[in-house]
Structures are given as C-alpha cells and as structure tokens.
Amino acid sequence: MKKGILLVVSAPSAGGKGTILKELFQQNETLRMSVSATTRQPRPGEVDGKDYYFVSRETFQQWVDTGSMLEHAEYVGNCYGTPKAPVEEWLNQGLDVVLEIDVQGGSQIKNLAPDCVSVFITPPTMEVLEKRLRDRGTEDEETICKRLATARQELTFAEGYDYIVINDKLEDAVEDMQAILRSEKRKSARNPGFIQRVLNI
Amino acid sequence: MKKGILLVVSAPSAGGKGTILKELFQQNETLRMSVSATTRQPRPGEVDGKDYYFVSRETFQQWVDTGSMLEHAEYVGNCYGTPKAPVEEWLNQGLDVVLEIDVQGGSQIKNLAPDCVSVFITPPTMEVLEKRLRDRGTEDEETICKRLATARQELTFAEGYDYIVINDKLEDAVEDMQAILRSEKRKSARNPGFIQRVLNI
Prior knowledge:
Structural class of chain A: alpha/beta
Strand content of chain A: 15-25%
Helix content of chain A: 40-55%
Largest interface: A-B, 36 and 36 residues
Shape of chain A: globular
Number of strands of chain A: 9
Oligomer: homodimer
Distance between the termini of chain A: 18 Å
C-alpha cells in the first residue's frame, strides 16, 4: 500500500481557504481532514473526535512530551495541536490528509514530517482581500484594518511553502490543488522500489 | 512574463512516449517541441528547422564548443544535440518546451538546466511492454529480445528523474503530465517576487 500525502495548507485570514478545501473534499473520496486536539471546552454541538479531540491540559502536555504531536501552539489561554497517530494511520492506509494550520504551525510541521507537501493559499492582491473583507460586511473598520495587517504579515511566510496557490477563481485554485496532489504522487522520491517492481527483480 | 517550463521526457523504446506527447500537445496551445540539430543528411520530406536543424559537422562542433548546446550525443556516426537558443527564447516567452531525449541525454540536461522538470515514462510492467512489442508484429524475435534488454537497462535510470509516469491507460498518463506542468507552475521556487507583488512592495 502506497502511503498517502500529508497536505499542509495555510492562508491569511479571509484568504478563502475554507471554500477551496470544501470543494477539494467534495472531489476527493480518499482525502481526510486532520482533527486537532485542544484543551478548550467543547462548544454546543461540537463532537469529540470529529470537531476536535477535547483533552485535559495534562493529557495534552503528555502528548507533547512524548513526541505524539505533529505541531502545537497556545492561543488565548488554550492549547491546540495535531496528534500524530490518526494522521499516520490514514497515511499508511493510502489516504491523503489535509492539515489546516496557521503559518507558525506550518514551519514546525516541515521539521517533523519532511515528506509533507505544503501549500500557501494567497489572494491575488491585497486590494482583492480588502474588498472581500468589506463585502462580507461583518466586521467594523478597526477589525478590517487589523485583519489586513495580520494578512500582510502572514503573507511573508508564503515562500517557505512548497507551492503558492492563488485564490482568484475558485475552480482554478481547486484544480491547482488537485494537480499538486496528483503530481506529488508521481514524484520518483515517493515511489521507491517502483522500478524494481516493473523489472520484477 | 513568467518563464515557461522545460519538460524533459524520456522513456524506454516502445514505452508509448509518442502517443502521450501527441495527446499532450493537442491539449496545450502553449507547449512547444524542441527541435534537435543533427549532422546527418535530411531524408525526403524532412524540413530544416522543423524536423531538425540540419548543420555541418563544423557548425555542430562550434555550437558544442561555445556552450550553445543543452546536450548532445553521437549515434551511428552522426551527431545529435539540442541548441540552447530557441529553447531559451520560447521559455522566455512563457511557453513550455518539451525535450524528448534518451536517458543518457537526460542526465546531461539536469546539469545545464537545473530548473527543468524531468519525467520518465514507464510501462506498468515488463510483461506489458513485451506484449505491446509483440502485438505490433513489426519486429522479429531477435529484435524484440534486444529491445527488451535495452528497455530493462534504460529503466534503471528512472529514479534519477523528478517524476515517473506510468503508461497504463493513455488518459491517466496524459492527465499526470498535465498535473505535473500545472503544479510545477505553482512551486514557490518558480514564483520569486510573487508575494512582494501581492503586497505591492
């Protein structure tokens, strides 16, 4: 069984990552979304093991200490992280796994899972990002300015990713993601022993 | 203008490279086929600059000496090689260029054009290759055996290529090639300065 691909995906806030991934999942039956562990309390309707693994701070710290986390971070007083075991299990079953992660987490992953594929999704221009934020009409001026400042800062991490996908037209961005998954499977480095099998030696 | 991609394609004899490339060219208007230079005489119907650049041995040697060839080799008394200038011109126009080449030439190219993308097309198994050769019914037993022996030897070079595409179903192999071209364009290493432009700095 050929191992699946671990696809690490980051984007600045309002970068349109959610829409692209939703479409990608609809087109790929062999794609799985990694589930994070967190120490925060479940919100109404959230399901343990589906939305998050809800764990105590002690359990979380133990997983970190024993190297059982792919990456982890603290955010407004709660811990978030990616348990390694379920991801590895899917990959070993030949399933591809998407790991949505912020840009800081992205840099940790590459050290722990060097054969992962990292994709940064970017708006075509800052003007487009600003327009998208304003068109939503859900945030006040101050929040929009803060989000834009954060996005500018996050964008500077993009070149550390393997691929940069431009979220201009949705269908183009999704096709880019599909092409990345498909071509990565054809990399010779991901097919050790393949030629030996063709030669039957 | 973003530079095009130099796609180096090799396959063992009877590997089905021709059929795959023909289909790939039909689907890609921005794809060009690199034209080789040769010192052999033109055959009836062959057009200079289209089928080959037909040149004298002196001219050929001069191109080699001045570093104007991407790769070159001698084959049954005639010289064959890939002039660099027309390939570079297409790439600078943003066009992608296919370079069909034998496995020995393939290893030279990577040294001279490190940003090229190399693809090895392989039959799924040696049995399939043998069946294809026999089904053509154009070669005698001795020739078939020779071709199979050559193919086995050529296959050992496959893992030095960036990608291995299996020629099992034609449409899958063509889609693999398309995915490779598409995803390579999204590599961050091929998009220097892109994020600066998004940020407008």
